[in-house]
Design brief:
The protein has 463 residues and is an alpha/beta fold. It has 17 helices and 15 strands. The strands form 3 sheets. Strands 4-10-9-8-7-5-6 form a 7-stranded mixed beta sheet, with helices on both faces. A 4-stranded mixed beta sheet has the order 1-2-3-13. A hairpin with a 4-residue loop joins strand 2 (41-44) and strand 3. The longest helix is centred in the last third of the chain and has 25 residues, at 433-457. Bound molecules: pyridoxal-5'-phosphate. Pyridoxal-5'-phosphate (PLP) is lined by residues 57, 117-119, 122, 151-153, 225, 229-230, 258, 260-261, 286.
Amino acid sequence: MVERPNSAAALDIASHLHPYTNARKHEAEGPLVLTEGKGIYVYDDQGKEYIEGLAGLWSTSLGFGEERLIKAATDQMRKLPYYHNFAQKSALPTIELAAKLLEISPVPMSKAFFANSGSEANDTVIKMVWYYNNALERPEKKKIISRIKGYHGVTVASASLTGLPMNHRDFDLPIANILHTSCPHHYRFGLDGETEEDFATRCAADLEQMILDEGPDTVAAFIGEPVMGAGGVLVPPRTYWEKIQPVLKKYDVLLVADEVICGFGRTGNLWGSQTYDIKPDILSMAKALSSSYMPISAVLISDQVYQGIADNSAKIGAFGHGYTYSGHPVAAAVALETLKIYEERDIVSHVQQVAPRLQEGLRRYADHPLVGEVRGVGLIAGVELVADRASKAPFDPPGKVGAYFAARAQAHGLIIRNLADTIGICPPLIVTEEQIDAILDRFDKAMDDTATWVAQEGLAAVA
Ligand SMILES: Cc1ncc(COP(=O)(O)O)c(C=O)c1O
């Protein structure tokens, strides 16, 4: 309840429509107002400290207050605070960033295109895929296959790729030509006794059947996150990517890797595509590209895709797509400095070193009465809470217990995110083992509180 009428909280309620928020709940309860950040910690306007256990939105990889990024931004602001990249203009940091991304790409790529968010990057991907197929005089080859529970953004087109009901319901989505194939989550969708490998085979067969049902000449691309994030931190079953990729090759379907969360070390390799041996034709990235200090995203395209787009741009007169802030020089300078820091501090090795502490620490909950599954890789993890471990029955309504857990974690000084009843953990990549212990400690307190509450409310079969 907001009691001080002139407070930031009251003003927020009066003036601000929040993304991904229950607006009526917000009117009643108000916001948590964050005012400062340092390392993995953030502080609210009352001075309370929190560990940012989700790195903001899976994104602030270098934590808060990284002076080098602040300097990179201010230096570039002084030199050239803005320029665009339309009509053969370019700026130095943008050029350097494009070249650097091609150098570190998990597979040979031809060009980088810049946008400002993951959604815009994936929107751009859809347009590129359509434009490319028109260039190749394949006007029928336009359908894009995504996955149930995939997350690719919220613009009209990228929300259509997203396979979560909340992003479609009452927005009149998805748009035409976007399809969703099976969700590769073994715990939820594997059959009794089905191994991960057999389940992966079935997912690949589902995909192939969808392509055949639709007609291979109408299917242009498949998009997937190496590890699905917002859908509940879903780690693919063993051999999944190995089995999906030949199906795409067989029907000349482009593979798009959405590395918006997985890119830049999150899974213990620079790219999620390396962790799962994915060979994309197109790769989208955002978030940790700039440690989220500036909004920037990028799309890398293979030479094959580039040649089609380039030919068509010559035929039409231009590639008629781009944002005022595509390749913004300040954002590009910050991204470049972020990539330098990753290299200098060998952030990938750091993740490999500390990740077991988090993964093993969380797996201690695998037998907890409220926990159905603990999953994760590198520094991303999900703990799925269930009403009944034996039947895997979820809580009813979904998300209520997860939200309670998140609120209790926040009270104990840990910000995490509940994805319905899965608790997502994704700390800044700079997190140390000691700090992981502190995360686990606060997580434990939230788990105890949740177990007590669930028992009091009689929400679980066993509590
Ligand atoms: C995998 C993935 N793709 C795309 C997006 C959309 O990015 P943005 O919120 O920057 O538009 C997200 C955001 O969480 C994401 O996790």
